[in-house]
Amino acid sequence: MGKVITVFNQKGGVGKTTTNVNLSACLALLGKRVLVLDNDPQGNTTSGIGVEKGGERNIYEALLGIRTPEDSIVATSIEGLDIIPSDMQLAGAEIEMIELESREQRLKEIVEALRDAYDYILIDCPPSLGMLTINALVAADSVLIPIQCEYYALEGVSQLMSTYQLVKQSINPELEIQGVLLTMYDGRTNLSIQVQDEVKKYFGDQVYHSVIPRSIRLAEAPSFGMPIITYDPRSKGAMAYMALAHEFLKWEEKA
CATH no. for residue 158? Predict the structure, then answer.
């Protein structure tokens, strides 16, 4: 039975989509069966993984019951890596879901139908705390939290943890923290080192040793519809995400 992980931070620009695309690709290349659910109307995970937006199969139709979860899956160019794509249609789902029964459980129903076919299901969600994000937190076994090494990074952590605790206490008592990932790290700056120290003080041993550096190649890869590991396997970004995938699986073995 596969594990479901939501990559979560209500702040934008922290590396959620980048982590979803690249960690899932690296896990697939390490032999795991991985499904990505693009639960963000922007659809950046969809295009970043090399799948065209606007196709018939998408998360919007699956959430509203128009199409079955199984029939919503699209294969990617990486063996073992599938996706349920997204596009701007999904923006309307938040409004349409208000009238549905158990509206916060819709994504969980999709996940439960597909869980046995995959080792890991990774969910990307929008940088907001609307119904789509609540669905992602309810569907998940755990949350992976990317935090960027920038000045305002820690300001949102208390709000993030409040949201996590609220969902855990009221809707999903099984929800755990998968790990905390430092992104946009630059070891030459005092700021990155200070943020790293503060995050480790707050989260302790839940922080991954692997850190994701600032990288032009990492920023370029989505425009070619490729994860960094296929776009430039020898780049710092590719090596960092592959190191994260190894560490992720090592933690899973210990769990």
Answer: 3.40.50.300
Distance CA 88, CA 93 (A): 10
Is there a contact between 63 and 96 (Cβ–Cβ < 8 Å)? Answer: no
CA distances from 252 to 55, 100, 147, 245, 246 (A): 34, 36, 21, 10, 10
Mean predicted confidence (pLDDT) in 118-145: 93
Domain count, the chain: 1
Residues 7/20, Cβ–Cβ less than 8 Å:
yes
Q: Give the integer Cα–Cα distance in Å for 189 and 174.
A: 38
**What is the per-residue pLDDT across 139-198, written as a single tens digit (0 to 9) for each?**
999 999 999 988 777 777 888 899 899 999 999 999 999 999 999 988 888 888 888 998
- For 45, other C-beta atoms within 10 Å of its C-beta total 29
What domain range is 215 assigned to? 3-254
